[in-house]
Amino acid sequence: MENEQAKFIVIEGLDGTGKTTQIKRLAAYLKQQGRAVFTDAEPTSAPTGKLLRQILSGEIKSDEWATAALFFADRVRHNTDENNGIKKHLANGETVLLDRYYFSTFAYQGANTDANWTMDLHYGCPQITRPDLVLFLTMSPEKCLARIRAGRSENDIEIYENPEALTKVSDRFDTVFSLVKEKENVVYIDADGTPDEVFARISAAVDTLWK
Ligand code: TYD
Predict the structure, then answer these.
(1) Residue 3: inside a domain, yes or no?
(2) CA 125, CA 127: separation in Å to the nearest integer?
(3) Which domain holds residue 67?
(4) Among candidate residues 93, 95, 53, 87, the one with its CA nearest the CA of residue 70
(5) How many domains does the chain have?
(6) Atom 20, ligand 1: which residue's CA is nearest?
């Protein structure tokens, strides 16, 4: 595969929409077509990402503004890391699949800070790469929560994984994607269905990238 065919695909959605399952399937699907694929997630596994995980679990307290800034810092490094960064992988001709990106900061932290500030921060930074495609997995917050609870123990629930927070974030995601529709290539994917049904919707959207 030639370098210019490497694409940057982001998958977004509420906790419980099945992003992780679908991203694995997408990686396998693209590899089967002979494409080089690199899969990653945010928050990252770098020290900034680890700190964020401690904040998300409630182990470390942080105000939402500082959390937003930390997500931003984690993301800048994720783009620029010389060995394992998004830019490096794209330059190597690998299609990058990313589980969450700046839209999550706009929705989750934007809900409790100033959404415009979170957007200005990211769109104003030349080191933050724009994705070629954003797959937005949609599902009702109630169904998301039921799926989260089915898969985890009570003390393994993160700070945003409650009905009030998820409903708020769900509304924010809708607002965010209507605000960015001019500058981003966003495809809404109905995530309510069997893994096969949802993946069929995803592959149809992804196939258009190489046409
Ligand atoms: P994720 O790893 O996708 O969820 P899970 O714990 O189900 O595997 O994301 C972890 C949490 O991080 C999720 O609740 C959303 C939150 N998050 C933000 O609040 N802002 C962000 O910018 C990102 C990337 C994630």
Answers:
(1) no
(2) 5
(3) 8-210
(4) 53
(5) 1
(6) 105
